[in-house]
Amino acid sequence: MTAPAQPTAPDLLYSQDEEDLRSAVRALLADRADAPTVIAATETDTPYDPRLWDALATGIGAAGLLVPERLGGQGASHREAAVVLEELGRSVAPAPYLTSSVVATETLLALAGDGGPADALLGEVASGARTAVLAVPFATPPAGPAATLATLDGTVRGIADAAVADVLLVPTAEGLYAVGATAPGAAVEPLVPLDLTRPLATLTLSGATGTPLAPPEAGAAAVRRGLLAGAGLLASEQLGIAEWCLTETVRYTRERHQFNRPVGSFQALKHRMAQLWLEVVSARAAARNAADALATGSPDAPLAVAVAQAYCSGVAVHAAEECVQLHGGIGMTWEHPAHLYLKRAKADSIAFGSAGGHREAVAELVELPAP
């Protein structure tokens, strides 16, 4: 009798290709999205820099990382996409990568392969020629309702990056549709979000027409696949936020002197930063595990994603709060970027479901032995 195959251990390390990708993305963001640039952009009505997005999506090819080469993409995986999101989290750069290149792309991938309209749209999104956004509230968890409207008529609030999207993927009870952002009967109204680096908007459809992508059942499965990937890779963005906050806090407390000694040498602050370091290391393991599970198509991917979100969202918020507080007075100013990280961490903590919701999902997914 053949013994059952043992599950493969997740690979939490970074490959050389992933490190090379990280270097390229970090160099681009350092040049195009440093702190003064991002702060200045949030004070305008258009926080996105089209040149930055073009360089990231097309120049580096990040927009098509999840798309197979036969469909016009780079043929990489969620592991590489996770590296990009770590760097975007580290710089809080305003870019629709998570929403377009991960969530919308995964949704379209679930429907691709038959030469239909999903294939054509996926190729355009992978090339960076168009930006697509799934038209569901940003707080929708992977197991949440797959359809927010009965038909292409109604209002959906709190859609992340809808204001910069070319195409909206609208799930309805009648199926999944692709609707042009400027199509007749479609109106996108920007909202004022907590996180100014990731704008939210309201979509109102009134007599709009769209391209059918999938019937209700297939469309619902595609939407859940997109949301699962979004939740799993959001953990990598949260990891990047926490790593930046810890690094900058350690650097500042080494340079800031009080009573003729660095404030970082005081035992109370050492303990706080040591605790934060432990949390960041654990968050890295959880985020990498989720990315690897998605990349390998593991049956445990929903559990890995739920664990990552249940843990990483709290670590990002804690790291950002400590960053603001341990920077003292300058941490409270608009000119210092700490507030951007705190707002992004707070907004991310309820994106794709809250930590509490993901803990409930873990409890449901884990099969506990009978007493």
TrEMBL record:
Keywords recorded for this protein, A-Z: FAD, Flavoprotein, Oxidoreductase
Keyword rRNA processing in the entry? The reply is: no
Query: Boundaries of each Acyl-CoA dehydrogenase/oxidase N-terminal domain copy?
Result: 15-114
Domain of life of the organism encoding this protein: Bacteria
Gene3D superfamilies this protein is in?
Acyl-CoA dehydrogenase/oxidase, N-terminal domain (1.10.540.10), Butyryl-CoA Dehydrogenase, subunit A, domain 3 (1.20.140.10)
The Acyl-CoA dehydrogenase/oxidase C-terminal domain sits at 219-364
UniProt protein name:
Acyl-CoA dehydrogenase
Q: Which organism is it from?
A: Streptomyces rhizosphaericola
Q: Which InterPro entries match?
A: AcylCo_DH-like_C (IPR036250), AcylCo_DH/oxidase_C (IPR009075), AcylCoA_DH/ox_N (IPR013786), AcylCoA_DH/ox_N_sf (IPR037069), AcylCoA_DH/oxidase_NM_dom_sf (IPR009100)
Tell me the cofactors it needs: FAD
Family, per entry: Belongs to the acyl-CoA dehydrogenase family.
